[in-house]
Design a protein that fits this description.
The longest helix is centred in the last third of the chain and has 25 residues. The relative contact order is 0.13. The chain folds into 3 domains: about 90 residues, Glutamate Dehydrogenase, chain A, domain 3 (Glutamate Dehydrogenase, Chain A, domain 3, Orthogonal Bundle), CATH 1.10.285; about 130 residues, Rossmann fold (3-Layer(aba) Sandwich), CATH 3.40.50; about 150 residues, 3-Layer(aba) Sandwich (Rossmann fold), CATH 3.40.50. The strands form 2 sheets. Strands 9-8-7-6-10-11-12 form a 7-stranded mixed sheet, sandwiched between helices. The chain has a 5-stranded mixed sheet with strand order 1-2-4-3-5. It is about 50% helix and about 15% strand. It binds NADPH dihydro-nicotinamide-adenine-dinucleotide phosphate and (2Z)-2-iminopentanedioic acid. NADPH dihydro-nicotinamide-adenine-dinucleotide phosphate binds next to helix 9.
Amino acid sequence: MTQLERVVSKEEQEVIDYMDELYEKIKARDAHEVEFLQATKMLLNSLVPVFVKNRTYREKNILEQLIEPERIITFRVPWIDDNGKTHVNRGYRVQFNSALGPYKGGLRFHPSVNLSVMKFLALTQIFKNSLTGQPIGGGKGGADFDPKGKSDNEIMRFCQSFMTELYRHIGPDIDVPAGDIGVGKREVGYMFGQYKRIQGAYHAGVLTGKGLNYGGSLGRTEATGYGTIYFVQEMLKDRREDFKNKTVITSGSGNVAIYAMEKAIKLGAKVVACSDSSGYVYDRNGLSLQTIKRIKFSEGARISEYVKTHPEAEYFDDGSKIWSIPCDIALPCATQNEIDEASAKMLVKNGVQVVAEGANMPCSIEAIDVFLENDIMFGPAQAVNAGGVACSSLEMAQNSQRLSWTVEQVDEQLQKIMKTIYSNCKRASNKYDHPGNLVVGANIAGFTKVADTMIEQGVI
Ligand code: NDP
Ligand code: 2IT
């Protein structure tokens, strides 16, 4: 019997009806927020078992409170390009939940950014941050700015303008942004500089993902990718397997993808394909990470360049077809909704054993159902990629101490955190009668801590 064919009890049906009603209410209010609705639906579905066993959450209307952000800030971001022309983008910060600590979550600069994307990311962040065991609430921000093709000065001016408004809403004990798509060390540096200028004070812990000279943590750059692999290691261990000789695909070739590839290769895997938004490269004998790093980090070029120095590899200009390549482990590490039902079926047909979400919500609801129905080990984003924000929290701790830990200390903590997240998700999935379903496990383990805390704090 698969996860999805379980017999539904009367109590369970009652909760399902309650969740459906709640979902319809949310949908009626924000019908156009498709990504937010998708993330909400996934969350509500997986919380059914905990609502069956614990009536308090329903009595206290915890979900109705939780699903509405504490605060949403949108603002104008004007900036001047190198030719003196003024442009205007829209900036966002969604401060979703502060039960466990200051709002914490990245900033995304990408033309696809809108309120729906910000809200889905911030919602997921609440449970991810809860799972890390660190004292951090959930938030997310960004702008519909496209960094592609912009000069360094244009990026700097944009970041300064963005922070000129955002600074009044953040602080080391209020809200601590970091990077995400299109925002790395360079952008964090420009934003930190502007925050410091306006505040007239050195609040090292106001942003994470900083440069090492001014409070950044060793290991933060690698943490999301490495953490993803540490999590998959735990999944594999359960089946007495490891990374040795496994064939891996990662989508994307940014921060998360590159360090996931690096750790997977170190553990003996062969990474045969990766992509960017233009297309993907494939070499059945394994890609050269050194070349990918040169193209992406040193040259800031397209992944299509790869075949110029590696004629044995092939380049295809439709990135979404990357999932047609046979592999043991698939790691979507680019963006939301990269794997739809058809791609999921293709992966299953080609014998995939593990799918783990390095990116946020890269798999559609239908795709996840395909994996679960076929007993594929599936690791959801809020657990798998939590190593990045966990390490951000370690950066905040170092900033408070005015100390820097060694890379070994940070990595040891990261490994411990990822192992604990895995075992907590697994324990919750077993406790709530969905063994092997880490989506249910992660959402329940993340949710209960936040909900119980909201009740303790009297947010009723
Ligand atoms: P980067 O900006 O470093 O890299 C993003 C990669 O994904 C690039 O290769 C980019 O290609 C590709 N990509 C982005 N948008 C699209 C799109 N719409 N279609 C196809 N490809 C796309 O970002 P990160 O590596 O930091 O982030 C990747 C994912 O991981 C995101 O979902 C992010 O939310 C998530 N994440 C990041 C964390 C972090 O610490 N950075 C922590 C946890 C999750 P191109 O260059 O062509 O745009
Ligand atoms: O999605 C994420 O967890 C991130 N982009 C990292 C957030 C952070 O605060 O480090």
